[in-house]
């Protein structure tokens, strides 16, 4: 569903992402881990189509992002680490605005979908309030609704759990799992090893722009020759290089 071929990004002299090759199957929740500055956000922005690669190819559901950007982007919902929202809109207005960006017709089906999403993310009571009055966690949940409005096959998420309280985090983790079980492919960066272990079917660790290890949490432990916590594996693998 997502295929990255020799994906590379240079920022002037810096190799932020260095020849990444990855293939992620449909319905997999993929966790992207790595130290600060490793290249996670850069990779995610390229997959979401908001940053142009220096080299390499991105294929989403068979569409080459460079050759057929609109078909590829139609498959993708993107939740950035620092989302932008029009704060003078209400939550409901914002979701209709996003639906319009995806050229979705204003049908009863769309209003049902938006209502269902607001219900799912526990924002129904706030739908008529201005976004500027939302707390950080509520904004975070609203941007997740917005990313799902066009029923994307692929959901790309940059650090989704930052700033969510335990209840919000539990809600989002459950929704991500449900989405994956329904066949949505998730690509998620996180610093939370607990989240990666609990939610992700597969994990890759990136360091200095290169993938240093990939597998299930269990396989990562084995590769590192350790039976311990994922945290120990992460620290050891990222320290060695
Ligand atoms: N716009 C930019 N211009 C120049 N260098 C950049 C730019 N954006 C990112 N970088 C550099 O690219 C490298 C990778 O950054 P990136 O934001 O992808 O890391 P990250 O893995 O998401 O880190 P974090 O965990 O802190 O979010 C870093 O060295 C960063 O300084
Ligand atoms: Mg980042």
Task: Describe the 3D structure.
The chain is an alpha/beta fold. The chain has a domain at 76-151. The chain is 38% helix and 25% strand. It has helices spanning 40-48, 69-74, 91-101, 108-120, 136-148, 166-181, 193-199, 217-223, 230-239, and strands at 2-11, 14-24, 29-33, 55-60, 63-64, 76-79, 154-158, 185-189, 202-207, 210-215. The strands form 2 sheets. The chain has a 6-stranded mixed beta sheet, sandwiched between helices. Strands 2-1-4-5 form a 4-stranded antiparallel beta sheet. Strand 7 (154-158), helix 6 and strand 8 (185-189) form a beta-alpha-beta unit. Helix 3 (91-101) packs parallel to helix 5 (136-148). The chain starts with a strand and ends with a helix.
What labels describe this entry?
ABC_transporter-like_CS, 9 helices, 4-stranded antiparallel beta sheet, 241 residues, binds magnesium ion, alpha/beta, P-loop_NTPase, binds adenosine-5'-triphosphate, ATP hydrolysis activity, transport, AAA+_ATPase, single chain, 6-stranded mixed beta sheet
List the helices and strands and how they pair.
Layout: E1 2-11, E2 14-24, E3 29-33, H1 40-48, E4 55-60, E5 63-64, H2 69-74, E6 76-79, H3 91-101, H4 108-120, H5 136-148, E7 154-158, H6 166-181, E8 185-189, H7 193-199, E9 202-207, E10 210-215, H8 217-223, H9 230-239
Parallel strand pairs: 3-8, 3-9, 6-7, 7-8
Antiparallel strand pairs: 1-2, 1-4, 4-5, 9-10
The structure holds adenosine-5'-triphosphate and magnesium ion.
Largest sheet report? 6 strands, mixed
Helix content: 25-40%
Going by helix content, strand content and strand pairing, the class is: alpha/beta
**Ligand catalogue:** adenosine-5'-triphosphate, magnesium ion
Give helix and strand order, one letter per element, not per position: EEEHEEHEHHHEHEHEEHH
- The strand line-up of the biggest sheet is 6-7-8-3-9-10
* Strand residue content: 15-25%
Count of helices? 9
- The number of distinct β-strands equals 10
Low-confidence stretches: none
Q: What is the alpha-carbon Rg in Å?
A: 18 Å
Report mean pLDDT, rounded to a whole number.
92
